[in-house]
Design goal:
By secondary structure, the chain is mostly helical. The protein has helices at about 20-35, 45-55, 65-75, 90-100, 105-110, 115-120, 130-145, 160-175, 215-225, 245-250, 255-265, 270-300, 300-330, and strands at about 10-15, 40-45, 80-85, 150, 185.
Length: about 325
């Protein structure tokens, strides 16, 4: 981390929509854990965000919250160094969202790329709701209420941070004071891991490996992964670039193993099961310490609830201070 970044606040969140998988681990959680070394981190369970697309599914908010936080803790998110909290436990988020909605042009929300993209991708769901249109503004409120200086994002989320900056800039201009902090996107190295079929890893695609999955099930899933369709018989040569297993080798295998795979696949010198064995070993080795670290929390979920409650209180203090400034700037007072 740079000296300039040290001590700055980072905020990120995740929806509690099911068990976390390797895609979450490599795409977000490993990065979250690294950020704790140089930043003040706020990580929240975005349960209100889950309602924007799954508003009819009340089953989201049972054990999902606890299960997800257990995965966070097991992968290195340290409550002594990060504030872990629940979005819906802090009504200040909703209040700031409401107040910002008074000054945010409708066109700003309609132009967010993910608005149209998700409508097309989730055709089976009714997304013609204000909540879905307005969720980027709720996301902006999540960031601005904690004076977050940085938001760790991938390229597909950069537009949300830019919207947040515009919302803060407009609010500050209207009220003549730097009330809200304009955050910056924190583009840190993130590894994207595809699903078992080569698509994006997602529980809805049934192509994921969860972080606490049974080792036997993990091995079965990798052993049955599709490979280059040209390799119908063991003696048929293949092309690693056309095989989802190769993408796992690019992440998990060393140069020597990858060279062995390339030569063996293109010459039909090895079979697909041979190719998958190093991946199976590497994935199992990665997941074993996560399962072990998670078990004490699985056995004692009350400890997880206490961590969240403590994080809620710390977050409430910060959010409350921001809302005091916002109310003062807008001429609002409490009776």
């Amino acid at each position: 981390m740079t000296e300039q970044a040290e001590g700055k606040r980072v905020l990120s969140g995740m929806r509690p929509t099911g068990k976390l998988h390797l895609g979450h681990f490599h795409g977000a959680l490993k990065n979250w854990a690294r950020l704790q070394d140089g930043y003040e981190c706020y990580y929240f369970v975005a349960d209100w965000h889950a309602l924007t697309t799954d508003y009819g599914d009340t089953g989201l908010f049972g054990n999902n919250v606890i299960d997800m936080v257990i995965d966070w803790l097991a992968t290195g998110i340290d409550p002594a160094r990060s504030s872990i909290f629940l979005q819906s436990a802090l009504p200040e988020h909703a209040e700031l969202h409401l107040l910002l909605s008074m000054t945010t042009p409708l066109s700003w929300l309609e132009r967010v790329p993910s608005y149209k993209e998700q409508q097309n991708r989730l055709e089976g769901k009714s997304l013609d709701t204000y909540g879905f249109l307005g969720y980027p503004l709720l996301q902006a409120a999540d960031i601005l209420i904690y004076d977050a200086a940085f938001v760790p994002v991938g390229g597909d989320q950069a537009a949300h941070v830019e919207l947040t900056r515009e919302v803060a800039r407009r609010f500050n201009h209207l009220h003549g004071a730097p009330v809200l902090t304009e955050p910056r996107a924190l583009h840190t190295p993130v590894t994207k891991l595809p699903g078992l079929d080569g698509q994006k890893m997602s529980k809805s695609y049934n192509n994921s490996i969860t972080l606490r999955e049974d080792p036997g099930q993990v091995e079965k899933k990798i052993r049955t992964m599709p490979t280059d369709p040209a390799r119908i018989r063991r003696s048929d040569p293949g092309d690693p670039a056309k095989c989802p297993v190769w993408q796992f080798h690019e992440l998990y295998s060393d140069d020597e193993t990858r060279q062995w795979v390339r030569e063996g696949c293109t010459s039909a010198g090895i079979g697909c099961i041979d190719c998958k064995k190093p991946v199976i070993e590497s994935v199992l080795a990665e997941l074993e310490p996560i399962r072990k670290a998670a078990q004490p929390y699985v056995d004692n979920p009350g400890e997880v609830r206490d961590i969240i409650l403590e994080g809620n209180e710390k977050a409430r203090q910060t959010a409350g201070a921001t809302m005091d400034r916002v109310r003062d700037a807008m001429g609002l007072s409490r009776w």
